[in-house]
Amino acid sequence: MDNNAWEFATLAIRAGHVRTAEGEHSEAIFPTSSFVFGSAAEAAARFGGSEPGNIYARFTNPTVRYFQERLAALEGGESCVATSSGMSAILAVMLGLLKAGDHVLCSRSVFGTTTLLLQNYIGKFGVEISFADLTDLADWEAGLQSNTRLLFAETPANPLTEVVSIRELAELAHRNGSLLVIDNCFCTPALQRPLELGADIVVHSATKYLDGQGRALGGAIVGDAERVGKDVYGVLRTGGVSMSPFNAWIFLKGLETLSLRMKAHCDNAMQLAHWLEAHPAIGQVFYPGLAAHPQHELARQQQSGFGGIVSFIVRGGQEAAWKVIDSTRMLSITANLGDAKSTITHPATTTHGRLSAEQKRQSGIADGLLRVSVGLENIQDIQRDLMQGLGEA
């Protein structure tokens, strides 16, 4: 049966796996640093690119290849490059596609470390960096320059779950001769497929929902065979920001249940968001599934679900927010997300803690803001755990 005829849930389980001569049912792990050639001529042909095959595990490994092919199939892309972390995926995109004199226009509403990577490191090498309001297409357009090489955005964004029209942003980028890169971490291809909406490249922190159980670090870039398959892959081959075979195997196992897990995360998150919306200690709730969310209709149109991240502002600022965190007994106090276990964090002092006060203000990171990655526990238990601190607040 042709893989192209398979539905999403089937691709997530079956795509990319080629059994070895041993006939294994689960994907094999290849924990080897290098591969042996049959002759000097074969070695030369593989290193030179005239013959396909494994060379060195920094950039060719069967287990990693299984994961790359499966995720590419789920995102609808031609090529995928797997990396050591989500941040290394973004780094590989920037190193592979940019040169001195280029300009990057990035959303202000991104993970704090993404902002710092662009400003403090990519910007050191002659690349100009500027920022735009994620949801304001006019601001994006005003920020475009003749040398703008790419636009970068998260949607939904971390941590306020703002949403931008990927289709309209892609059209804006392409009219300017620029590329659009979308971080699809919050939705995964189970809920949103940016390439189908016009984006050129998708990046992931596989550490999050693609794994789903907080077991391993990894990242991925999906796109076309030229930019991703050659330009970005070249960074991996030369720079070595590589995914380990064992981690790739973990992510393969995670992808098998991705569709089911994302539906369950969405269901729990929706219930929690409504519950928080009615709580007197809460000033504002940020979740695209709520009718009050400014981009609710847009999220409903371009996503098949609203995701598992719910952020909210506790009345009373940082003191009240920390009291909520410290009063929990079940939720994990950690900055990771996308886990089966619910997690809670205070963005202003963790994920966005290295940003300046002005950057936090521009990004809407309030002192009383909390972000919950809603897990797969019983929703009533999640609510009861939060109630301990909210009752005091």
Q: Specify Rg, calculated over alpha carbons.
A: 21 Å
How much beta, percentage-wise?
A: 5-15%
**How does the overall form come out from the CA principal axes?**
globular
The CATH architecture of the largest domain can be named as 3-Layer(aba) Sandwich
Describe this structure in words.
The protein has 393 residues and is of the alpha/beta class. The chain folds into two domains: 3-30 and 61-256, Type I PLP-dependent aspartate aminotransferase-like (Major domain) (Aspartate Aminotransferase, domain 2, 3-Layer(aba) Sandwich); 259-392, Aspartate Aminotransferase, domain 1, CATH 3.90.1150. Helix content is 40%, strand content 15%. The chain has 15 helices and twelve strands. The strands form two sheets. It has a seven-stranded mixed sheet with strand order 1-7-6-5-4-2-3, with helices on both faces. The chain has a five-stranded mixed sheet with strand order 8-9-12-11-10. Helix 7 (166-175) links the parallel strand 4 and strand 5. Helix 4 packs across helix 9 (227-239). The longest helix has 20 residues, at 258-277. GO terms for molecular function: carbon-sulfur lyase activity; pyridoxal phosphate binding; transferase activity, transferring alkyl or aryl (other than methyl) groups. Belongs to the trans-sulfuration enzymes family. MetZ subfamily. Its cofactor is pyridoxal 5'-phosphate. Catalyzes the formation of L-homocysteine from O-succinyl-L-homoserine (OSHS) and hydrogen sulfide. This is O-succinylhomoserine sulfhydrylase.
